[in-house]
Amino acid sequence: MSRPGKTWRYDYYAQTWGGLTWETLKAFKAAEKEWIAEQFSVILARRAKAHEAVKALAQTGFFKPKVGRAYLTMTVMKFYDGDSTPGQMSTTTEEEWLTKRDTLAQDTVTRAAAASNRDQAVCWLLAKGKHYGADFTIETAVAVADNLAFDMRCTELAPPVWYAELGCPGPESGVPSVWRAFDGQNCEGPCLGWDGRSHRCQCGNRRVQWTAGSSHTFREPSVFAEAY
Fold this sequence. Notes:
The chain has four helices and four strands. The chain is mainly α. The protein has two domains: 81 residues; 118 residues, no CATH class. The strands form two sheets. The protein has a two-stranded antiparallel sheet with strand order 1-2. It is elongated.
């Protein structure tokens, strides 16, 4: 089995590697690994033959000064001329090029997605009655849209009546209850939760606010109540 060669070539003028992909690089490394293993098998077989030859020579009692030493060397050299351990061919340059190529491709996709998101934010804000230049710009469109969507969602979730103004009535008052659980609700005593508008929970132990979720966007608002 001959040593496998690289199946790609560098095009200096195009500044690219023709035929180089992660798949072809992986296939080359696998073939090279198999070839190296085969070479080691050959080396081990030669060592074994040299060992047997030396044992046979020793049993004849042929070891004599000078002549015996030279004959021993010649006997061993018939089977084994030392370790010529094969090494792996460097693919560092190719791997760096592939990584850079993938990074540039991902950057292109990311920039395109950001541009699309910005354009959608502009259209969304205009539909909400906002004015370009006065309320937002190209650079701030996404942030303004996300913030506006957050405020709108908070208004939707908050009750129509501020329960604090009614003395925080409970279910027995006949007023529809909108008390809700919130993240970090660890009040020591009984607590109905948070009314969505006050600064504290029903029992007064925790301060609570609306918080945007990690996946919140103007297209898909994500808002939850959280103690702070």
